[in-house]
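Dear Dr. V.,

Thank you for agreeing to look over these. As mentioned in my earlier message, I'm a first-year student in the group and I'm still getting used to reading structure tokens, so any feedback on how I've presented them would be very welcome. I ran two proteins. I've put each sequence directly above its structure. The first is here:
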Amino acid sequence: MRRVPAYGINGGFFYGTDLLSVAIMNDLPVNGDKGAYGSGWFNAKYARGTLVWDGAAGRLSVQTVSSGDELSVSDRSHYWAQGGISMNLQQEGLWAAAIAAEHLPYADEQRMRSGLVYDETGKLWLIVTPTLCTAEEFRTAVLQTVPGNGREGIFLDGDGSSQMNADEAVLTGDSRPVVQMIAVAGGK
């Protein structure tokens, strides 16, 4: 990811040059035409946890959807959405069933992990760890270290795709090119 002159982390799941997770900005998928396979309009195969910033309402939410058509937003010209897998940080009893239903790859294996987490004030954390861990260990670390109330979030693509670019740290995963990243405005 170091080739991109922006602060950010890897986005959702992909295969080759096709996005397999929702990645939408103002009702337009980031990798092609609306409704096209691999464009970022769909969470491929399964309804999955999708982090949504509703710009008109000024709030973040996690919605379990299959496509951009299902997103609930106040203004379809003023939002962004990033697909992943629901963490269910507020629902201790539901998270394991959710990652099974949403088919989080390699949940019980030691892998690099990444995710997006927000709190009730709207603060958003982009999280990547080079430490190999299970999904449960990653989620537990998020609960123990991310401050704030009303936290919620999603797992993003992990393992070799877990990448971050910032002045303070650069994590290259396995150096594979990622199809999509989440960039932080104002960085670099």
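The second protein is here, in the same arrangement:
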Amino acid sequence: MSQKKGPQHIAIAGNIGSGKTTLTEKLAKHYKWQPHFEDVEHNPYLVDFYEDMPRWSFNLQIYFLNNRIKHLIDIRQGQDTVIQDRTIYEDAYIFAPNLFDMGLMTKRDYENYTSFFENLKALIKPPDLLIYLKTSIPTLVDQIQKRGREYEENIRLDYLKRLNENYNKWIAGYNDGPLLIIDVNTCNFAEKEEDFADVVRRIDAQLFGLF
């Protein structure tokens, strides 16, 4: 069987409200890639987690991790190029540490989770390109308010700020594969066609050596 040419897995990372879903949809349409979105509706732990976070935080994070590993296996075994909204790294480097820092996950559970992730990470292939949407807190707040999701109305500023700090720290040390950083504060790919065209040019340069 002949090897599939070109990238198989493009991943988009970024804070809540940074524009991951919008960019995933636009790039999937432009390149005819297969989009992959997070399925929150069928998550069996979310309701329990919001009712008792310390009790269910470890279970929820393990569920996310298991789901993402399954998706990564599916991507590598498939023939399509997949563009993924959110990555396996964000669970381990952004959300789990944040739960621990907020006192919502015990030290024992956090160390167990982190160790499990590091073992899994050694077995998985990183994305062919990671796109990080870098965003300031005012831009995040503006975009979250614009889309008007009811369950996001009560997101606290300090929570977004902590996540942003974790994101920037992770990206500063990311060396698992090719990385493209898009500054959402100056690049409005959602509403300006010329900004989206610039994103496409940068992706072409990264993936195909086209300038």
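From my reading of the second output: The chain is about 55% helix and 10% strand. The radius of gyration is 17 Å. Does that match how you would interpret it?

Kind regards,
E.
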